[in-house]
């Protein structure tokens, strides 16, 4: 079984913000595979998706903790379903990647992303797959950028990146992560 976690912050206030790109990709994946986040446990929402096109069940999940506590959801969920690091994919926003672009990586550090720091600390490993959704370099420093909602051309690029990340995740689930990296990076 695979686990795909999209990072974000809970609540209406954060719904369309740059920091919630992971949540938005999970929502898009649920549309693609006709499933709903119908379970709430371990401080998060998830579904066990058994779509006919998937080679095995996949858990799509979103922590309902705030970003910097994401690992407190991921670790217990992995333990409950006995999911290994090799079967985890985390999707999150990244300022180091231009708007509208994505990057797939088989492992790596957290960079400056607090959600990834929390997951790495809780799992005691950086050895899990990730899909980074570009939000671009901020025009101004601070949390106002990542917690801001993209508008105009930035909103169009955000939507494009969400679609790209969802399709890359679908490829990873159907054809393997290496295939997805070769086709989407």
How would you describe this protein?
There is one protein chain. The protein has 185 residues and is of the alpha/beta class. The protein has a single domain (2-184), classed as Peptidyl-tRNA hydrolase (Rossmann fold), CATH 3.40.50. Helices cover 37% and strands 19% of the residues. It has 6 helices and 7 strands, in the order βαβββαββαβααα. It has helices spanning 21-32, 71-81, 114-123, 143-146, 152-175, 177-184, and strands at 2-6, 39-40, 44-49, 58-63, 88-94, 102-105, 129-134. A 7-stranded mixed β-sheet has the order 2-3-4-1-5-7-6, sandwiched between helices. The longest helix is centred in the C-terminal third of the chain and has 24 residues, at 152-175. It is globular. It starts with a strand and ends with a helix. The model has no long low-confidence stretch (mean pLDDT 93).
Strand content: 15-25%
- Radius of gyration (Å): 15 Å
Identify the CATH homologous superfamily: Peptidyl-tRNA hydrolase
| Assembly state of the chains shown | single chain
Average pLDDT for all residues: 93
What is the spatial order of strands in the main beta sheet?
2-3-4-1-5-7-6
CATH class: Alpha Beta
Q: Please, how many helices?
A: 6
Number of domains: 1
Classify the fold: give the CATH topology: Rossmann fold
Q: What structural class do helix, strand and pairing data support?
A: alpha/beta
Number of strands: 7
Largest sheet: 7 strands, mixed
The gross shape turns out to be globular
Helix percent band: 25-40%
Low-confidence stretches: none
Order of helices and strands: EHEEEHEEHEHHH
Q: How does CATH name the architecture?
A: 3-Layer(aba) Sandwich
The separation of the N and C termini measures: 24 Å
């Amino acid at each position: 079984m695979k686990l795909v976690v999209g990072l974000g912050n809970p609540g209406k206030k954060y719904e369309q913000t740059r920091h919630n790109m992971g949540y938005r990709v999970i929502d898009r994946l649920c549309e693609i595979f006709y499933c709903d986040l119908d379970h709430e446990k371990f401080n998060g929402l998830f579904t066990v998706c058994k779509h006919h096109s998937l080679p095995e069940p996949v858990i799509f999940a979103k922590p309902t903790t705030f970003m910097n506590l994401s690992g407190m959801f991921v670790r217990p969920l992995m333990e409950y379903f006995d999911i290994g690091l090799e079967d985890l994919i985390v999707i999150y926003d990244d300022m180091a990647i231009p708007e509208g672009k994505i990057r797939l990586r088989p492992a790596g550090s957290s960079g400056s992303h607090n959600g990834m720091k929390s997951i790495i600390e809780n799992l005691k490993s950086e050895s899990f797959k990730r899909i980074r959704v570009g939000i671009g370099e901020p025009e101004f420093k601070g949390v106002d950028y990542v917690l801001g909602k993209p508008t105009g051309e930035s909103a169009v690029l955000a939507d494009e990146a969400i679609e790209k990340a969802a399709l890359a995740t679908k490829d990873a689930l159907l054809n393997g992560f290496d295939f997805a990296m070769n086709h989407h990076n």
